[in-house]
Amino acid sequence: MNEVKLNITIKPMCQLDIDAVVGIEEESYGNHHWSKESFYNELSNDLAHYYCAFAKDGTLIGYAGIWQIIEEAHITNISVKPAYRRKKVGEALLHRLIERCYESGVKYITLEVRVSNTKAINLYEKYGFKSLGTRKEYYQDNNEDALIMWTENIFYDKFKTLYEHNIENLKKVIEINE
Fold first, then answer.
1. Percent of the chain having pLDDT more than 90?
2. Cα–Cα distance between 21 and 76 in angstroms, integer?
3. Higher per-residue confidence, 32 vs 105
4. Pick from 32, 29, 27: nearest CA to 61
5. Which of the residues are catalytic?
6. Domains plus CATH for the chain?
């Protein structure tokens, strides 16, 4: 029996999305989450680009953000509503961020991730991110270390081949509309 593909739409975040985004923040991070004000500030930041994933019924189910500075980009966050995790929504959002980088000529992408977040680390490694060290006691809620991850130049054939392979497989299990 064939499994039905999840159908999502990814659009740029707008102010009307912020309440639902903060709801996901609270579900994901408890008391240590970004505030509404933080997201309003990000939406007015020329370096920042944020996207939201919506289920077919219009429910906001995930979001992701990136800062672009010349040829580098820094992923600020990717978070998915708990009921939609392990359904490739986070991967679809990562795909959108990487596409944004291609569109604007960004060559390198970096991020920090909790050393205990093996699912996220595995996703980033799948897309060619490599660990280049840690930031000691980076997370304020529990002083957990952050793993620093970087891509090689995303325009290099090695990265592009891996990326295209991953996107081909992603599109077999999730339908992404923009």
1. 76
2. 14
3. 105
4. 27
5. 112, 124
6. 6-170 (3.40.630.30)
